[in-house]
Amino acid sequence: MKNTLLLFCGLLLLACASSYTGTMRPVISDLGVGQPVRAMERLRHVFPDSTGKDRLLYLMELGNLARYAGLHEIAQAALLRADGLSDLQRGTDIGQQAASMITSDLALDFRGADYEKVFINYCLAASFAASGNIEDAAVEARRVNEKLKEINTHYGENPNRYSDDAFVRYFMGVLYEMDHDYDDALVSYRLAMATYDSVYSDQYGLPAPAQLRADAMRLADYNGFDGLLSEFQLLWPGIDYSRNPLSGEQGEIVAVVELGSIAGREERDFAVHSEDRIYRIALPVIPMFSRRQLSGTISAAGAEAPLFLVQDMNGIARKNLEDHAARNVLRAAARLAVKSGVSELGEDLTEELTGNSTIGSGVGIILSIFGAVTERADLRAWLTLPAQIQMARLTVPAGTWPVSVTVNGRTFSHEPVTVVSGEITLVFLREDIGYGSGRVY
Question: Is 417 domain-assigned?
Answer without folding.
Answer: yes
